[in-house]
Amino acid sequence: MIKFEHVGKRYLKKVALKDINLELKPGKIVGLIGENGSGKSTTLKLIAGLIQPTSGVVTVNGRRVTRRISEHVAYLSELDEFYGFFTVGEMIAFFASQYPDFNREKAEEIRRFMKLAPDSKIKNLSKGNRGRLKIVLTLAREVPVVLMDEPLSGLDPMVRDAIVKGLISFIDLERQIVLITTHEIKEVETILDEVLLIKGGEIIGHKNVEELRDRENLGLVEWMTKVYAGDCPPTV
Fold it and tell me: How many CB atoms lie under 10 A from the CB of residue 128?
């Protein structure tokens, strides 16, 4: 379980998150949506232990988050963090050497699904194919928490839908929780169980996606627009 208790984060004079209280349980794919600068990436970095809260406590499965939480958390960054001189296959082998939980066989399966040639030099890959490689490396780790910051960034719109649907087969929802931030809301909506809406460093909405569709007849974009405009009461 991921838990935030009165968590705040400040960068010098800028407030990124304000007094966040949150509990998320395994077995779900959760979307974090909101406008640019709302606090989505900061939330993921706090869970990944890449930054520390200014106030409050973040825990994963009852363990206070530090940099060592990487043993339990896989993090896909919005930034490229590759050795360009490696091939795709060498990068997979490198990750396997760094993480005991890395499933090499699963990585190869995802690589084939992503249509990445193992001998391709990373420095020669397009932005979209580097994005595919990040997905391979992240989902091949068998950890309780998977964090994906803009995983569809740079991907051709023509293939996003197929890739999103394919993600389901590589996630173990019996024991994992997956958090995704994205601007491609409509593409990921079909695989989300819950959604968190963030604005100005505060969580202003927390919904079950199926209930949102069935009971309120709203898609995520429509709901987000209404809550941001004050036309729909938030649910937290």
Answer: 16
